[in-house]
Specification:
Blueprint lengths: L1 H16 L2 E16 L6 E4 L3 E29 L9 E26 L3 E6 L14 E18 L6 E16 L2 H27 L1
Antiparallel strand pairs: 1-7, 2-6, 3-4, 3-6, 3-7, 5-6
Length: 205
């Protein structure tokens, strides 16, 4: 019976080990239309994740993309969570990344990370706040927002169609590969055969 249980657990464990996360692409913003002059579709995201900013147009055109990334850094007394009033220090930063291209389609993938929390002991720099050296503190670094924008510069007044889309990649529960399903079915089938054989041996005895 022990061998049967081990075989069953082994089949299930193998199936989980070769499972792969299933990803689902969710369109969170889309706008389409016709233009004949310069315009700039844009969208901002605030939740951690992986995002595709893409644009397609009906003719070759100048496509200039910028991404403005806003981050925040705070230090608090440990342990979290603490009210904002107990913030010891903080800062905000903003940076911009850009790229110029020419064509009828362009896509940029941008990752907005999860917040990062770090623990450390206070140094003498916090004495002015009444915080003694060695006091447990924690810092939190996070992205407040990412703002993506395409600047579209037509090289002629000829009208063109466009579609601007922002897609978020979302992970779902792991899904076993087809081969894993087959191995698990064979494993459980072997378990069933072993149980039947043991019953026949018991009845024969």
């Amino acid at each position: 019976m022990k061998r049967i249980a081990v075989a069953a657990l082994g089949a299930a464990a193998f199936g989980l080990s070769v499972s792969t996360p299933a990803s689902a692409d969710v369109v969170i913003y889309q706008v389409s239309g016709s233009e004949s002059d310069y315009f700039y579709p844009s969208f901002g995201v605030t939740d951690p994740g992986t995002y595709d900013f893409e644009i397609s147009v009906s003719r070759d055109i100048d496509l200039y993309f910028t991404a403005t990334i806003n981050t925040h850094y705070d230090v608090y007394l440990a342990p979290p969570p603490r009210p904002h009033a107990e913030n010891l220090e903080g800062s905000q930063n903003s940076g911009t990344w850009s790229e110029d291209s020419y064509g009828s389609y362009k896509k940029y993938t941008i990752v907005m990370p999860e917040p990062v929390i770090s623990y450390f002991a206070a140094g003498s720099q916090y004495l002015y706040r009444g915080i003694q050296p060695g006091t447990p503190l924690y810092s939190e670094y996070f992205y407040e927002s990412i703002f993506g924008r395409f600047y579209v510069f037509p090289n002629s007044p000829e009208p063109f169609d466009f579609t601007f889309t922002v897609t978020k990649h979302e992970e779902t529960a792991p899904v076993p590969e087809p081969s894993a399903w087959a191995l698990m079915i064979l494993g459980f089938g072997a378990v069933g055969g072993a149980i039947r054989a043991r019953r026949r041996e018991t009845l024969a005895a």
